[in-house]
Amino acid sequence: MEQNNITLRSLSGILKDKASLAKASLFSKTRSYVHKKIIRATTHDPASAPKEYRRTALLSLGLGSSYTARTCIKALMDRLHKTRNASVALKCLFAIHNILSQGSVTLRDELSVFPSHGGHNFLNLSGFRGGFNRETSKYSCWVRWYAEFLEQTLITARVLGYFLTPASLSSTSQVLRKEREVKVRAYSSSDLSQEIDLLVSLVGVICSCPDSIHLQRNDLVYEIVSLVLEDYRVIRYEIRSRLSELEKRSLESLGISELAQVLSASNQFEGCKEKLFALFVNRANYDGLWELITRMKPTLVHHITRTSKVQRMICWTPSDFRFPWHTNGNGFVRDYSAYAVTTT
């Protein structure tokens, strides 16, 4: 019976895709061309990820005019929000992820500003439900998580001023890497601590992925996790570059709030370690970041403790202390010199 239901759902999905292609043929030439590429890259087939040539065809839409790119993003978002099929939704999100990681500047820009008015959060799929049986419920969880991850990725990109693309770590991107290193060195310690916190929050979203990791046996879920792994490598690099820069500086120059922020982010990141190992099978963990965090944490704790003691000593009100009086010729004033010595 269950096999029959799966066959019926597959047949229904094929018919829906054919109907969507037929409807797209009625559009104008450019819209029809764009919609057909998107439909073929986001079919209802739950068993397989989009073929490489389908992804390439979709990404090629960013090589033409800005109108074509804008039409692509709008059509992709319309399909994402109109479907109640978890496979279609996952493939739409997978297409968005491919645009972020490999797409042209035009496509990324159109995606980052979509929609151009109204302030609508187009990746808010927290209420997505793709069905009520056990299998579709599991895939719906992946849809909600994947949308949240991509949303946080876009937020991070806006703050950093650039997208976290795997290409930035390739051997051919040495110039780009040097430019970013110079940019990091120019940041204030406060900016560095805030960006570390933001990047670790993105790692936290990765670790909130559904517990049904066994679904990686599905080609689509496997491809999604592989793409997230590439992003995770870049995130680790960005975190390590900022922590290394802070380590080179005197941590005494940081305020207690910045110190606490970095320590909290370090603890949060270490708390994700077990889930990261389970999700990525210990890949991307040999860049020295864990060792750097282990080395820095005692120093952070020491400076926080020391700064806290000093702040507690200097947080006083006139009624808390009794200082001796002395005269300076113009009247009596309190003598704080003895207390000043105790705060040094």
UniProtKB/TrEMBL annotation:
Keyword set for this entry? Answer: Coated pit, Cytoplasmic vesicle, Endocytosis, Golgi apparatus, Membrane
UniProt subcellular location: Cytoplasmic vesicle, Clathrin-coated vesicle; Golgi apparatus; Membrane, Clathrin-coated pit
The record, for Gene3D superfamilies, names: 1.25.40.90
GO terms assigned for molecular function: 1-phosphatidylinositol binding; clathrin heavy chain binding; phosphatidylinositol-4,5-bisphosphate binding; SNARE binding
Where on the tree of life does the source sit, at the highest rank?
Answer: Eukaryota
Example of a GO cellular component annotation carried by this entry: clathrin-coated vesicle
- List GO BP terms, alphabetically: clathrin coat assembly; clathrin-dependent endocytosis; vesicle budding from membrane
Its main subcellular localisation, reduced to a broad class, is cytoplasm
InterPro entries assigned to the protein according to its UniProt record, in alphabetical order: ANTH_dom, ANTH_N_plant, AP180-like, ENTH, ENTH_VHS
By its UniProt entry, which PROSITE patterns does this protein fall under? Answer: ENTH
> What are the residue boundaries of the ENTH domain, all occurrences included?
26-164
- Protein name as catalogued: ENTH domain-containing protein
